[in-house]
Design brief:
The chain has 192 residues and is an alpha/beta fold. It has five helices and eleven strands, in the order βββαβααββββββαβα. The chain has a six-stranded mixed sheet, with no helix packed on it. A five-stranded mixed sheet has the order 7-8-9-10-11. Helix 4 packs antiparallel against helix 5. The termini are far apart.
Length: 192
């Protein structure tokens, strides 16, 4: 089961996805709301926290989550204070009841990761792509437009028609032909 704990939050935050299963995990912690209380509405413990990237809206709740649940974080850049363990490009990690491949997808930020599982039919895309062909901005420190284009192309090639749900960093999840939204982002980024 995947729940967006920030779905109704009226504050500057990213989405924060609680994935309950054999390895109960939180994908991004969000910011500016009590994510710990929201986690506790669903489970008593979590096993891992995954960080799609380390922009404040995705990681500001990390310290509270680590303290409350005595849990470590996984992300691309262990030199960042919010990341305890490295996830390398192509590495497989447990989320819920499935194995997910980590895809290093820089452009929005150099440490950006997407997590995809063909078996689950799910991709956590962070701020790489959004519903309706939206894509991440590159005007923040570390942003790189050419890298973003290449990363969107990489994600588009990595997912197939088996993709049933695209969970994005902001806005609604895409559950109707999500590969089409990634393809739209690949086209839209080229017309920017």
């Amino acid at each position: 089961m995947i729940t967006n704990l920030a779905g109704d939050v009226q504050a500057f935050t990213s989405n924060a996805f609680l994935v309950v299963g054999e390895t109960t995990a939180l994908v991004d912690t969000g910011a500016n709301f009590d994510v710990v209380a929201r986690i506790r509405e669903h489970v008593d413990a979590i096993d891992r926290v995954y960080v799609t990237h380390t922009h404040p809206d995705h990681v500001d709740n990390v310290p509270a989550v680590k303290t409350a649940f005595n849990v470590e974080t996984w992300g691309y850049d262990v030199n960042d204070e919010h990341v305890d363990n490295t996830v390398a490009d192509g590495e497989t990690v447990p989320i819920g009841d499935h194995a997910y491949e980590a895809l290093h997808t820089p452009g929005h930020k150099p440490d950006h990761l997407c997590f995809r599982s063909g078996a689950a039919g799910v991709c956590f895309a962070g701020d790489l792509v959004f519903a309706n062909g939206g894509f991440g901005r590159t005007d923040l420190p570390g942003g790189d437009f050419d890298a973003l284009v290449a990363s969107i192309d990489r994600l588009s090639e990595a997912v197939g028609d088996d993709l049933a749900a695209l969970y994005v960093g902001h806005g609604p999840a895409v559950t109707d032909r999500p590969a089409d939204d990634i393809a739209m982002a690949a086209r839209a980024v080229r017309t920017r």
